[in-house]
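Lecture notes, unit on protein representations.

Consider one protein chain, 374 amino acids long.
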Amino acid sequence: MISAIICAAGSGERAGFSKNKILQEYNELPLLCHSLTAFSQRADIGEIIIVCRREDENRIFELISEYPNVKICYGGKTRAESVYLGLQLVAGDIVLVHDAARPFVSQKTISNCIASVKKYGSGVAAIPATDTVAVACNGGYSTTNRADTYYVQTPQGFLREELYGAYGKAFTENKQFTDESGLYAHYVKPPHLVSGAKENIKLTYPEDFILAKRVGFGVDTHAFYADGEGAPFINFITLGGVRIPSEKILKAHSDGDVLVHALMDALLSAAGLRDIGYYFPDTDPNYKGANSMELLEKVVTLLKQEEFAPKNVSISILAETPRLSPYIGEMKQNLANALSLPPNAIGIAAGTNEKLGYVGEKKGITVYAIALLQ
């Protein structure tokens, strides 16, 4: 039988969360569940042992209720102690050791490790180093041939008795190793490396938990009042929170900030939420004359509730009138402040429509917006 040990007994302090990082939700599932799913769906793995902290036990028990053949044991003060404790529960003659913080392990990588253990007695996932690796020494450093250097990952597979025996010797001699491959190399023989994957990264720091980026598109159009239509007695339009002198006035229920409206729709779309008409309907008197920059702040709050944040935005304004270029810098700064972004993450372009269509005939303004979320 093949057994798997999932190492989940660390505190995850470097990730900076209020709880163990392996319980932090990542793409709608606790991090641990991604690794757990990868191993539990295999018919050739007969049992999974999760090595965890006592304080995480209750939450992990809740999570494993949907997975068959999973056991829990308490870990030790170090990774070595934790894996050794897990090995004492292992029933299989082959054991795979995997970090719970590597949620993207593929079935191909797991299969490579198993096949290698069956053939060579060990199988350690690794990928060739793409950077020069330096070893610091007395204020300087030495390098090694990059062609012979690999980044070691997990899973790492071994014959259970050989790995257990190696750990016993290490504890007797009070020797420390950062992972099983180093231990095995010292007490048994050099482990056999197998192809891992670049995607099989270990999530350690807060920035590692940034999800794949999401893109949204928004567009909005506002018409100008025609002569004799009873335009309000103002001489400006509002774009990006900036009042811009204008002979023509935009029709709107709110302040008519067509730029911000397009941007809000792009942000909401990227997060998979409804459009601005749903959240701020023009039939609601509460939004009569509303400040669109304040509505944008509410959209940012909605994004936070979905655990998204703006990364950058790109906006294109089509307007024959008024002249907008003197005000673009101020618009960018307003949006940067509202989205908690640097101004260089805000792109705004303004152009005419070469006197074609309703824009060219000075009947309205259209704005297109693209938003990138993380």
